[in-house]
Amino acid sequence: MGDEAERAYEKALTFLERSARTEAEIRERLTRAGFAEDVTEQTLDRLRDAGLVDDADYAERYLEVLTAKGRGSRRIADEMRRKGLPDDVVKARIEEDVSREGETAAAFAIAERLFEKLGGPEAAVAEAEAGRDSGSAPGMTGSARGMTELQKIWQKVDRKLVSLGYPYGVVGEVMTKLRSSL
User: Fold this and answer.
1) Cα–Cα distance between 49 and 47 in angstroms, integer?
2) Are residues 163 and 176 in the same domain?
3) Residue 132 in 3-state DSSP?
4) Structurally, how many domains does the chain consist of?
5) 74, 98, 122: which is the final residue of a domain?
6) Does residue 42 or residue 137 have the better pLDDT?
């Protein structure tokens, strides 16, 4: 094996010391360091043979990390693609490990905590009392042009779930369930 190939392998090992990486991340790092494409591919083959790089295994572990952080399937897929994981690996991992029921339960737990943190229960009580006092329907308090405090809270919870990458269908289901639990 040539000196360049050995240097590329050592560079890749140094890169892998800090944390696991995808093949795409290693390929990019070696290319930026000026190694030829054939040397980079040879290095990746050697790393695969040694069990030091495995995109499928990486995807499985990364999915666990992102799920624990409360990310939804859309965001997980986006973040995996940003790491350079192939679409077939991303799709297989999500189809295999992310269920609609699990995702809905996780999103509901996040929505409940956020609703509570933003003062949703208090806003709902205040809105209900204002509606009884003024004779107007719940949700119609506040200025005619503006949203009620409760509506603002619902909107923040909805936006947070979308930003975490939960599918729109899951978000809608969670919001309906949360509203009906009041």
Assistant:
1) 5
2) yes
3) helix
4) 3
5) 98
6) 42
